[in-house]
Amino acid sequence: MTRHLISIEDLERDDIERILERAEAFSEVTDRHIKKVPALRGRTVLNLFYEASTRTRSSFELAAKRLSADVVNFAASGSSVEKGESLKDTVLTLAAHSPDAVVVRTPWAGAATMVTNWTDAAVVNAGDGKHEHPTQALLDVFTLKQKLGGLDGRSIWIVGDVAHSRVARSNILAFQKMGAKVTVCGPPTLIPRGIEALGCEVQYDLTRLRDADVVYALRMQNERMHDAYVPSLREYAARYQINGRRLGPRQVLMHPGPVNRGVELSGEVVDSPQAVITMQVKAGVVVRMAVLYELLSGAPADDRVTSPEEPQLA
Ligand code: NCD
Fold first, then answer.
1. Which atom of ligand 1 is nearest to the CA of 133?
2. How many Å lie between the centroid of ligand 1 and the Cα of residue 257?
3. How far is Cα 15 from Cα 97, in angstroms, rounded to an integer?
4. Which residues of the chain have pLDDT under 50?
């Protein structure tokens, strides 16, 4: 694995397995009454969020705190970004606090890579525009391993707005690295041309949805759409919504959140026992603990961290 986590392409299957094993070891910590280990005591994690976030931001913050790191949370709204400060100057300013890791989410593809040039810290991409969201893919693989035992030979359908989704890109790569067969499905306007080059299959209707072991629905990313991609959300829902009629009784249902109930998913399937949406959120904390640990534990011998196999109370 590289010094930063920008893309799933930075990881081999072995790296993914190692991170997920560590996440599994950290699960024991988060199920305790006192949810903290001293693994990253004295290290500083900077969360730099230029876009709305509920799950990703809260779980990176909790992950860092459960490892005893100090956390600085920066949100663009309410900061000097509103006075015109650029991403580069913001990073250079906050890098003066000597963070060990910078977790960054922006609406711009490639921004996380640019941040690596402006700080010595390890950079974790928490979503860069339509490009990638690697920790989301890792937590989704973790959730599926818990639910199904493994991904080898499984069929996973990713349904919806693939064109604007960084989650789709990272997940296609990660699910395939872990041995699954991926099909993307949606209206032709929302499936990028040439996506088969990533190794996945393409379907434009849900006729064969029952072949899937896992149905992974995506949100309609209205904030990234500058033209009309579908005639209306009603028509989209009529053709592509995952609902009780379309979801088979043994299929696992996933969604990265936030869900638009009544659009990509009907309320009944969100609330059904087949949905693992809150399991995904829970996995987010332990997987991000494992990623931060992986990137920051290469410290000099005198400040070596405690092994997660032997967690200690802080
Ligand atoms: C996603 C995102 O922001 O990329 N959410 C998340 O991180 N769980 C997906 C989305 O916004 O639809």
1. 4
2. 6
3. 30
4. 300-308, 310-314
Please tell me what DSSP assigns to residue 118: T
Q: What pLDDT, on a 0 to 100 scale, did the predictor assign at position 81?
A: 82
Ordered strands of the 214-217 beta sheet:
201-203, 181-185, 155-159, 214-217, 252-254
Pocket test for ligand 1, best of 56, 254, 276 (most atoms within 8 A of CB): 56
Q: How many other CB atoms are there within 10 angstroms of residue 52's CB atom?
A: 13
Query: Which atom belonging to ligand 1 lies closest to the Cα atom of 56?
Result: 7
Q: What is the DSSP letter of 165?
A: -
Cα separation, 38 vs 276, in Å, equals 30
Beta strands across the sheet bearing 70-75: 70-75, 44-49, 101-106, 122-128
pLDDT in tens, 152-164: 999 999 999 999 9
Residue 116, SS3 per DSSP: coil
Q: What is the pTM of this model?
A: 0.93
Residue 310 pLDDT: 47
Any ligand 1 atom below 6 A from CB of 136: yes
User: Which one of 167, 220, 287 would you pick to mutate in the ligand 1 pocket, going by the greatest count of ligand atoms within 8 A of its CB?
Assistant: 167
